[in-house]
Specification:
Elements lengths: L1 E4 L15 E4 L17 E5 L6 H5 L6 E5 L8 H6 L3 E3 L6 H17 L1 H9 L19 E5 L3 H12 L3 E5 L6 H6 L4 E3 L2 H7 L2 E4 L13 H6 L5 E4 L8 H9 L5 E4 L18 E3 L8 H19 L11
Parallel strand pairs: 1-2, 1-3, 3-4, 4-5, 6-7, 6-9, 7-8, 9-10, 10-11, 11-12
Helix pairs in contact: 3-5
Length: 315
């Protein structure tokens, strides 16, 4: 079986696929040549590499697209389905690293650690009892939009920090599911969550239905001393409006790992001290990346053995 492998990852991480023919994707997205790829049966890809109709048309024997990550909005899943191409992702390995980063951003934006670090390095910070004050998260309310696996992992960490949890999903989660996750959380409407929460965390997958879920109306519903945290997808937030909200202090601050037009970032955000910016590193640990690649390889091996029950298909 010929497999197009993602060269953004270390080649040795694919060693378990040694019995198959691996070809690098180096020229796949840059050339119309089919020489190395036309008989490929498997394509590995990631968030930064679009898999659209034009690419699928160049891979007539493709049967499996395996995504490195949980989100797959870079893939035209409908076009794959029409061609009988299975699409898989790697949902389990992303849970804990993303939740770790989300909690890191909550603590960081509240206590202003990155901002103060920058100021100290520039000799712009003075020491003093009432200088450089942040906010405690203890006793505060965290509103989680998207109480899936990652949302629940964030909630566990927040509870350990003494936070109260409210959440909003399309559907209320059965209490036993929350209790089994050691979570005490109250379901509420989207509007009530925005009004009540001291920290609003976006942890839901992206679809067109939630494009610009957070815009002017939603930001103005939030408390003036509230913070917005986004480790999900950038297009959940109207970035231009967020920049205005931060500049005019509709809300206290924001911490972002993802961006609407990634890797481009709304220029004004870079000039504001009340926003923390990191470069899409939600799963960015060595342990997390390796586990994601292992899960991707597991999907390929299961496919080669026709063990479809062991795969994580999205279509």
């Amino acid at each position: 079986m010929k497999i197009i492998y993602d060269t953004m990852l270390p080649r040795e991480w694919y060693d378990r696929l040694g019995e198959h023919t691996l070809v690098p994707d180096t020229a796949l997205y840059e050339s119309n040549s089919l020489t190395d790829y036309e008989d490929a049966e498997v394509l590995t890809t990631n968030f930064y590499k679009p898999v659209r109709v034009d690419l699928l048309d160049r891979l007539p024997k493709l049967k499996l697209v395996t995504q490195f990550g949980v989100g797959y909005d870079n893939i035209d899943v409908h076009a794959c389905s029409e061609r009988g191409i299975l699409v898989t992702n790697t949902p389990q390995p992303v849970i804990e690293p993303t939740a770790e980063l989300c909690m890191t951003l909550i603590l960081d934006i509240a206590r202003r650690t990155a901002e103060l670090d920058r100021g100290l390095r520039k000799d712009e910070i003075q020491f003093g009892l009432l200088r450089n004050l942040g906010h405690s998260v203890y006793g505060k309310t965290l509103g989680i939009i998207g109480m899936g696996n990652i949302g629940r992992a964030v909630a566990r960490r927040a509870i350990a920090c003494g936070m109260k949890i409210i959440y909003h999903n399309r559907h209320e989660i059965a209490l036993p599911v929350l209790e089994q996750s050691h979570i005490q959380a109250q379901y509420t409407s989207m509007d009530e969550l925005l009004k009540q929460a001291d920290f609003v965390s976006l942890n839901l997958p992206y679809t067109q239905e939630v494009h610009h879920l957070i815009g002017e109306r939603e930001l103005k519903l939030m408390k003036k001393n509230a913070f917005l945290i986004n480790t999900a997808r950038g297009a959940h937030v109207d970035e231009k409006t967020l920049a205005q909200a931060l500049r005019e202090h509709w809300i206290a601050g924001a911490a972002l790992d993802v961006y609407e037009h990634e890797p481009m970032i709304e220029e004004e955000l870079k000039s504001l001290d009340n926003v923390l910016l990191v470069p899409h590193v939600g799963t960015g640990t060595w342990e997390g990346r390796k586990a994601m690649c292992d899960a991707m390889v597991d999907n390929i091996i299961a496919y080669s053995r026709k063990d479809f029950n062991s795969m994580t298909p999205v279509n």
